[in-house]
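Hi X.,

You mentioned you wanted examples for the new student's onboarding notes, showing what a folding record looks like when two proteins sit in one file. Here is a clean example. The first protein comes first, with its sequence line followed by its structure tokens.
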Amino acid sequence: MEFNYDPLKTVQAAALFLKLNGQQMEYMKLIKLLYIADRTALDRMDDTITGDKYFSMDHGPVLSKVYDLISHGPVYEKDNPWFKYISPPQKYCVELCEYPGNSELCEEEEEIIKGVYKAFGQINVWKLSNLTHFIPEWQYPHGSAIPIRIEDILRELGKNEDDIKAVQRDIVRENYFDMLLAN
């Protein structure tokens, strides 16, 4: 079960977090806030904001694509909008270069991002990292990376098997429409 990663929506979500934080932030903190926002959206909307894939890593859960964009720069995806709007990391921080707007984010997604920032945005990056170790689907990977499945997140959020199957049907439908639009 995988959502389609949305690069523009992802950069708009990250940019909103950066804007709320005065234009810059430790990238590890940004990744944690994005994960919490995606998890919250999954709980409230049966969908994520970014469509990214998740992994348990030593410092907590991460968004795979966002982690790669920050860690590797434009090596793999030169055309990703991330690189137009968000700086390469310097001293473990990223900065908002230009605000991409919010055209891809619905009102509920913006409210989720603002709520996550209000609840966790002022917490020290290392304390936030430690807090994410208590998210039930996270597993300590001992220096590796363990995939976090959408089904597992949904179960930990208290969704029953019928709810999970409904989310899976929605994902299949959305992926099908995305494929049709791409052709």
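Then the second protein repeats the pattern, sequence line and then tokens:
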Amino acid sequence: MAARAVPASLQQLPNALTLLRLALIPVFVALLLVADEAYSWPAASVFAVAGVTDQVDGFLARRWQVESAFGRIADPLADRLMIDAGVILLWHAGRLPWLALAIPARDVVLMAGYPLLAGRGYDFEVNLAGKAATWLLYASLGFTMVTAQSTAWPRWLFWIGFALAALAAAQYALKARREVKT
């Protein structure tokens, strides 16, 4: 599909949405910290806006062919930080079990390993399992914030997202093993 002619004033919109998502992280954290047992429509709303902007910024960047080096790094970083904040705060509030902390742990390993692997020839591209995991984690964590603590279905969504995140991490590791120059 041919790229649409995009006015220069709009070409930075995908990056601006990523910056917005980064700016929303402390707002989200503050709203969830003051919530009663991590039940918060305002926090969930901010979280949902972050999830939607994740989809919109990537779509626009690809559609308009204005992908940037900044966006390739900042976009997944913004997602990881927002989701990790949600997991940690929901765990702290007793809404997720301790095993959920494997999500932020995985992200720390991926973020720490990326500069090392990129310098050795690894071409990091988000895979389908990683995208699906991100969508499910955004949805499940948001739903967890607005349902009663005893509601099970958001946690089922979370565990599906968790499994996909683990699958994506395994796929990244296998790809890195094949591609990294020694």
